[in-house]
Every structure is written in structure tokens, then in C-alpha cells.
UniProtKB/TrEMBL annotation:
Protein name: 3-hydroxy-2-methylbutyryl-CoA dehydrogenase
Pfam family, one: adh_short
Keyword Aminoacyl-tRNA synthetase appears in the UniProt entry: no
Family the entry assigns: Belongs to the short-chain dehydrogenases/reductases (SDR) family.
Xref: InterPro entries: NAD(P)-bd_dom_sf, Sc_DH/Rdtase_CS, SDR_fam
Keywords: Oxidoreductase
Species, as recorded: Stenotrophobium rhamnosiphilum
GO molecular function, one term: oxidoreductase activity
UniProt keyword Oxidoreductase, yes or no: yes
Highest classification ranks of the organism: Bacteria, Pseudomonadati, Pseudomonadota, Gammaproteobacteria, Nevskiales
Amino acid sequence: MKIDSSLAAVVTGGASGLGLATVKALRAAGAKVAIFDLNQEIGEKMAAETGAIFCQCDVLSDESVDAAFAKARAAQGQERALICCAGGGNAIPTARRDKTTGEINIFPSDKFEWVLKLNTVGTFRCITRAAAGMMTLEPLNGERGVLVNTASAAATEGQMGQAAYSAAKAAIVGMTLTIARDLSREGIRVNTIQPGIFATPAMARATPEMLDALGKMVPFPPRLGHADEYASLTLEVIRNGYLNGETLRLDGAIRMQPR
């Protein structure tokens, strides 16, 4: 699919990190972009800086997602590209014994469920809306649209405490081919990017020493990934019309250790 001023795109989680880098890359290529994000202050600021539009969106809510798509389409037309970067996680062991008291605590089910809702259900909620909208369009060179999801290395090598996040991201990987098959007759492609360790705002709490150590875990290049490298691959996924139903690792060949 050609990326130029005729393309309308939606990026969830587009106000920061991988999503923002993707917004910038799409805008540099001429596309019209809507930033979907929960944080209104930062979202509006980034929209102003990039020339995108901001649509406040909570991917946990049908009503919020529907309203965001309606606003985006009213401003820039029906999107042909959806990039899902919204997500998050927590770090809680499945069950843990307190070293001092011996008390045994378990992973609260509601916190596990929240991570799956945010990542897996939130992604799927946006996919269904975008796909339905794309189905109203006439194909361009046989193609109506493209969906790009974001998983994580945790989907296949989750570290200790990442049970919920691993499950949520593994589900995104698992549903990629199925959704691609569901939408194949409509000319809509579906792919997922599986990033390793990236230098994003989520990593900002780590010390420089920790970041350096994490970077050295990567075989080559021995550093954290850059958000614009994720954005570059996203644009290639959009452009390459034969790429469909795939999960693409972007991780410098790292395979995560248990901790």
C-alpha cells in the first residue's frame, strides 16, 4: 500500500514511544494520521507538533473507541492503516513466599485480567472497528487496508513476574494469522511486530547502568532498540503488499533470560 497524502492512518498509543515514532514516520511520508491515546495533554501536544489529529481514546471502552474512530474519520476520511501500539503490563509473580514472614501471596486475578483486557482485548477492539470501516472502501490494487499489531519478546520468552503480560502478548501473536485469514477475502492484511527491548518512556525509570546492562544482553547490535526502527518496519509492513499473517521479531537476536 502506498504511503502518501491519500492514506489515512490511525495509531493507538500514538502519543509516546513506539506509537509516536510511527506517527512521525507516517507524517514524514505524507500520510494523514490520527493519534489515539488516553493522555489528552500529551496527545494534543504531539498532534500539534506532528501535524496529526488527536482523538482521546480508552481502548478498554467500546464507547471511547467508537467515538475516537468517528472523530478521526470525520477529520481525515476512512483509515486504510491501523497501527496498534497501546498497551502495558505489570510485574507480579504467580505465587510468592515472603522471605521474612513466610506468607504466601498469589497474583490477583483482577490485575491479571486487566493486562489481558488492555493489550489483547484492546487491540482486538480496535481491529474490529478498523476492519469494518475498511470493508466499506473500494480496493486499491486489490487491497482495502492493513492492520499492524504490537506484541513483545515476552510473548515467547516472558521473564519472571510477566505471566499476564506474556499471556496478553502471546494472544496477539496467536490471533494474527487467524484474523488475517478472516479478512483475506476483503483484501485486508494483518501482521504483528514483536519488539525486543526498546528505549521508550517505559524504560525511563531504569538507571543508566541498568539500561547499559540490558543493551549488552542483545547479540547485535548490543544496545536497546530505537523507536524509529520500529516505525521503519511498520512502514514497510504497510507498503509490502505480500506480507500477511506474519509476526516479525525486531530484537537484535535477543532471547530473553528468566530474569
